[in-house]
Amino acid sequence: MRSLSWIRIRVPFRAPFVSAARMWTAGDSWLLRAELDDGRIAWGEAVLDDEDDAPVLEALLDDMVATALAPAPALLDRSGAAGRAMASVLDQLALDDRAVAAALATGVRVNATITAGSPDAVAASASEAVDRGFRTLKLKVGSDDDVAALVARVGAARAAAGDDVALRLDANGAWDLDGAALRLRALAGFGLQYAEQPLPAADLAGMAALRTRVGVPIAADEAVASVADARSVLGAGAADVLVLKPARVGGRAAVAAIARLAGAAGVPVVVTSSLETGIGLRAAIVAASNLPDVPGWPAAERDHGLATLDLLEDDLLVGPLEVADGRLRALAAGALAVDEAAVARYRVPEVAR
């Protein structure tokens, strides 16, 4: 390896993105650039859920740049969320260009995401998404949505999308058990594919109880930050579906390990983004392309939460990843190449090595 360096970047969103957890106006990530012995340039992107983990991640990056050696697995394990983010970076550096090119050419099916809004706004967004070829819509919901408001919004989405389009909800852990049960019972007639993280991530007992109280399948997202977390969720019977962020759980190897565990329990896995740029999203597409089938829901028929690049002002790739007919893929050459001029534009001043 000829050289290593890293920088922190901040890419503005085209418009604020609102979930029950927070509002994003920009996406922060850490990029590791490696010039390999054969002259090729490899990149890895790290994303963190909690800014408090940044010093640990930056120390890991500093150590790798100084020594040209990857951190030991034991150190990554001890480093928690930052260690898993670093593992994801190392996984991206090791990606085979041919495997990436093949995955990007074929692409993966993806869902559209609809943020909070009035029933009329939700209906308009749903209609637009269906016209673009999406076959699954995910509606962001939260603690401010009472039963009547939820019924109106979900009903508007269903009426606009039609019965052949799948609907998902994502509450980002905003509800309590009784409130979630009340809401989901009221929505049972809309044929929801699943409700994602309706309760706080730590409430596995509540998630398991909720599965017995409502007829809507329950998905775990924030509750699955690692392979160990996945074992806990599956052991508690807390989810019908696992939603995995490769950047959060530690890269493709962690996704594959969790998918094997889940598959053995008959639980399917869906891959979603951490709102990263196209650099990290390429690895997420590869991960989503290599999931096992589960009875009742073959891997090829799952729509993943990876259609998020449009949120960003720039995806940092020379050739874009685009959604066509409900699939995210590279429609033109260049998705393997990083736009280094764009990377430089979004550098966070004085945070680089």
Write a structural description:
With 353 residues, this protein is of the alpha/beta class. It folds into two domains: 3-94 and 339-352, Enolase-like, N-terminal domain (Enolase-like, domain 1), CATH 3.30.390; 103-330, Enolase-like C-terminal domain (TIM Barrel, Alpha-Beta Barrel), CATH 3.20.20. The chain contains 13 helices and 14 strands. It has a seven-stranded parallel sheet. It has a four-stranded antiparallel sheet with strand order 3-2-1-14. A hairpin with a 4-residue loop joins strand 1 and strand 2 (23-35). Helix 4 (97-106) crosses helix 12 (278-288) and helix 5 packs parallel to helix 6. The longest helix has 15 residues, at 147-161. 47% of the residues are buried. The model has no long low-confidence stretch (mean pLDDT 95).
Label this structure with key terms.
7-stranded parallel beta sheet; alpha/beta; Enolase-like, domain 1; about 350 residues; globular; TIM Barrel; 4-stranded antiparallel beta sheet
